[in-house]
Design a protein that fits this description.
InterPro entries: AfsA_hotdog_dom. Pfam families: AfsA (PF03756). This is A-factor biosynthesis hotdog domain-containing protein. The chain has four helices and 14 strands. The protein is an alpha+beta fold. Strands 1, 2, 3, 4, 5, 6, 7, 8, 9, 10, 11, 12, 13 and 14 form a 14-stranded antiparallel β-sheet that branches.
Length: 335
C-alpha cells in the first residue's frame, strides 16, 4: 500500500515560483507504519519516499552543455522542490511556515550511469528518508533528509539535506534583518571595481551564455580565484521571485566556480568534468540587488579510485563581506 503524488511543475508553496521543464515525477510515500496515515495524523518519526521520473530532456539548464553527463543537480533540485511539500503534507507543519534549506550534500558513487547515451531517457529514482528535527508540541521545526539516487536501477549517488521551517513573522523579521545588515555598514560594501564580463560558457560546462552565472575570474593575493555571481541578463530559470537569489542560482554558481577553478588553476577540461561531490552550508540569504562575490581555491590534482584526475575545491560566497554559503566540492575529469 502506497501514497503516490504527481509532481509536475509544482509551484513553491510560499514564493509562487514554478518548476521548469524537468519532467513529470512521482513522489511515492512508503511509510514504515500506516497507523498515522490511517488516522490522518502527522508523522512523529522517519518517513520513507521514492521520487521517480525520467531524467529531463528539454530543461533550459540541465540539458545545456557538452552532453557527456546528465546534470547531477537534478537530484538536489528535485529534493529542494518536494522538501516543503513533505513537511506540510506528512509531518503536520502549518502551510504558512516557510521552508529554507540550510545544507546539501551529494556524492557520486558510480559515474557510469550518469553518462549520456544518445536517444535514451534514463529513469532517475531518489530514495528519501525524512526525519523530523527539533519537534515542538508535535510539530517539527525542521527535517533532515538522507538520499540514495539510482539511474535505471543502478545506485549512483548518496546525499543529505537539511530543511528548517520558519513561522511567518520570524521569516519576515529574518528577511528584514538581512536587508538592514547589508545596508547598515557601508564600510563593508564590496563591489566590482570595473566592468563585469561573463565567463566563457565552455569554461563552466554550459553552451548557452544565458546560463552562465559567474564572471571571468581573477587570481587574488592568496592564490584564489575571485569572481562575481551574475544576476542580470541570465536565463529565466534563475528568476528571483522575492528579491533574493533562489537556491538553484546559488548551487549553479558553486558548480561553475568549481569548474573554473579546476580549469584555470589545475588544467582540467570543463567539457569532460563532473562535480563528483558537493557539500554546502548556507549561512544567510543572498539579496538579488546586491553584488555577490565568489572565491574559489583549487587544491593540487589527485586521482580518484579509478585513476581519474580529481581536484578538491573550496568555494565561498560573500555579500558585503558576510558569508552566504560555504562549499567543498570535488571536480573529476572523465577519460
Amino acid at each position: 500500500m502506497t501514497d503516490v503524488t504527481t509532481m509536475a511543475g509544482r509551484p513553491s508553496a510560499h514564493r509562487g515560483r514554478r518548476a521548469h521543464d524537468s519532467g513529470t515525477r512521482h513522489l511515492v510515500h512508503c511509510p514504515p507504519s500506516w497507523e498515522n496515515y490511517l488516522l490522518d495524523a502527522p508523522s512523529l518519526g522517519d518517513e520513507h519516499f521514492t521520487l521517480t521520473g525520467e531524467l529531463p530532456g528539454r530543461h533550459p539548464l540541465f540539458n545545456d552543455g557538452p552532453g557527456i553527463f546528465h546534470d547531477v543537480q537534478t537530484v538536489t533540485e528535485s529534493v529542494r522542490e518536494v522538501g516543503e511539500f513533505v513537511g506540510h503534507r506528512y509531518f503536520g507543519v502549518p502551510a504558512d511556515r516557510t521552508g529554507l534549506f540550510h545544507s546539501f550534500a551529494l556524492t557520486l558513487t558510480d559515474l557510469a550511469p550518469w553518462r549520456v547515451v544518445p536517444g535514451t531517457r534514463p529513469r532517475l529514482s531518489t530514495e528519501i528518508r525524512a526525519t523530523p528535527a527539533n519537534v515542538v508540541n508535535g510539530v517539527p521545526r525542521g527535517l533532515d533528509f538522507q538520499l540514495l539516487a539510482r539511474v535505471d536501477g543502478t545506485p549512483c549517488a548518496t546525499g543529505s539535506a537539511g530543511l528548517v521551517f520558519l513561522m511567518p513573522k520570524l521569516y519576515g523579521n529574518l528577511r528584514a534583518h538581512n536587508r538592514r545588515a547589508v545596508r547598515a555598514t557601508p564600510e563593508l560594501d564590496d563591489r566590482p571595481s570595473g566592468p563585469v564580463l561573463a565567463a566563457d560558457p565552455a569554461a563552466v560546462g554550459r553552451a548557452s551564455a544565458a546560463n552562465v552565472v559567474v564572471a571571468r575570474p581573477e587570481p587574488d593575493s592568496r592564490d584564489r580565484l575571485s569572481t562575481w555571481v551574475l544576476t542580470r541578463d541570465v536565463g529565466a530559470v534563475f528568476a528571483a521571485g522575492d528579491e533574493r537569489l533562489p537556491g538553484l542560482h546559488l548551487l549553479e554558481s558553486l558548480r561553475q566556480a568549481s569548474l573554473l577553478a579546476a580549469g584555470r588553476s589545475r588544467g582540467l577540461t570543463a567539457s569532460r568534468c563532473v562535480l563528483a561531490s558537493l557539500e554546502v552550508r548556507f549561512r544567510s540569504e543572498a539579496e538579488a540587488a546586491l553584488p555577490l562575490r565568489c572565491l574559489a581555491t583549487a587544491e593540487p590534482v589527485g586521482r580518484d579510485a579509478h585513476g581519474r584526475p580529481s581536484v578538491p575545491v573550496t568555494v565561498t560566497l560573500t555579500q558585503c563581506r558576510r558569508t552566504v554559503a560555504e562549499a567543498r566540492t570535488v571536480v573529476v575529469q572523465d577519460f
